[in-house]
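[step 3/7] inverse_fold.run input=structure_tokens len=289
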């Protein structure tokens, strides 16, 4: 397969469940063999100096601070001695809470169709399916979204996460985050509690960005200078604030890091990973990426 030689790449992962460990290990061994895995810091420093992105360089990023990043991913990273960045929401770490969208989705999935329809009606939601309702909730302003979360909690009082859901969605606590070797794992901010930033006021955006950085730095006693937009959503206000507060930021926009004029350290594109190593390889190589 022809490989683009003039660009670097940032790969985006989320959670990896236990069954995915082997596939991830195989995928990372492939990457180690064919690419040079570097830290986000190393890539950003090079770009800040005005150098062209190094062909062949790959940065690994894992979003959301899920506990399986520690239990499943971290041992593989350590074994291969490859660096990665974990984007964590310190407000969720502090509270020991799931991402709101994970919780809402799992709760709604327990409802039979008539009960789901009833919840949909009391929410005045536009979506009818579970995914439709989650998608609709992502458009709400924070107070309304919290209200909707409450309605869903009240409609599912007996909800208990299954052990599979716990493995998929539990997030790390501070002890977990502190146990990550700082020479291997960069911890970046993913806001306090994963709100959709474009739905917030300017003041709320600033406080999510400032507080999350501050909280991570206090807890970890090292700089938290990189940021990841929750859901990949941002608007002009968010972008300006991120630019002021962070050294660099990653989006969910798909693309490679190349020397185009559009290269922007606060809007770095990423390549979504796939569990299937061949598909990830294809996404890394395809010239139009
Ligand atoms: Zn996220």
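[step 3/7] decode complete -> sequence:
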């Amino acid at each position: 397969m022809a490989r683009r030689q003039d660009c670097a790449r940032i790969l985006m992962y989320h959670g990896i469940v236990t069954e995915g460990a082997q596939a991830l290990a195989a995928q990372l061994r492939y990457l180690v063999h064919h690419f040079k895995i570097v830290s986000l810091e190393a890539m950003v420093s090079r770009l800040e100096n005005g150098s062209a992105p190094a062909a062949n360089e790959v940065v690994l990023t894992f979003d959301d601070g899920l506990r399986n990043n520690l239990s499943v991913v971290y041992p593989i990273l350590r074994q291969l001695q490859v660096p990665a960045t974990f984007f964590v929401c310190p407000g969720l770490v502090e509270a020991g809470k799931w991402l709101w969208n994970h919780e809402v989705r799992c709760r709604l999935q327990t409802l039979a169709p008539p009960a789901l329809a009833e919840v949909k009606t009391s929410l005045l939601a536009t979506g009818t399916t579970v995914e439709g309702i989650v998608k609709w909730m992502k458009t709400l302003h924070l107070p309304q979204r919290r209200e909707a979360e409450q309605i869903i909690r009240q409609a599912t009082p007996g909800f208990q996460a299954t052990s599979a859901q716990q493995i998929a969605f539990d997030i790390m606590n501070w002890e977990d985050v502190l146990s990550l070797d700082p020479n291997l794992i960069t911890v970046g901010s993913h806001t306090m509690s994963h709100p959709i930033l474009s739905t917030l006021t300017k003041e709320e955006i600033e406080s999510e960005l400032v507080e999350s950085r501050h909280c991570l730095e206090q807890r970890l006693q090292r700089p938290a200078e990189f940021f990841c937009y929750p859901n990949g959503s941002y608007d002009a206000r968010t972008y300006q604030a991120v630019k002021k507060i962070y050294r660099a930021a990653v989006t969910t926009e798909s693309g490679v890091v190349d020397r185009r004029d559009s290269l922007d350290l606060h809007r770095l594109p990423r390549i979504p990973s796939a569990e299937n190593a061949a598909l990830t390889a294809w996404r890394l190589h395809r010239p139009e990426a």
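[step 4/7] annotate
The chain is about 45% helix and 15% strand.
The CA atoms of residues 35 and 56 lie 5 Å apart.
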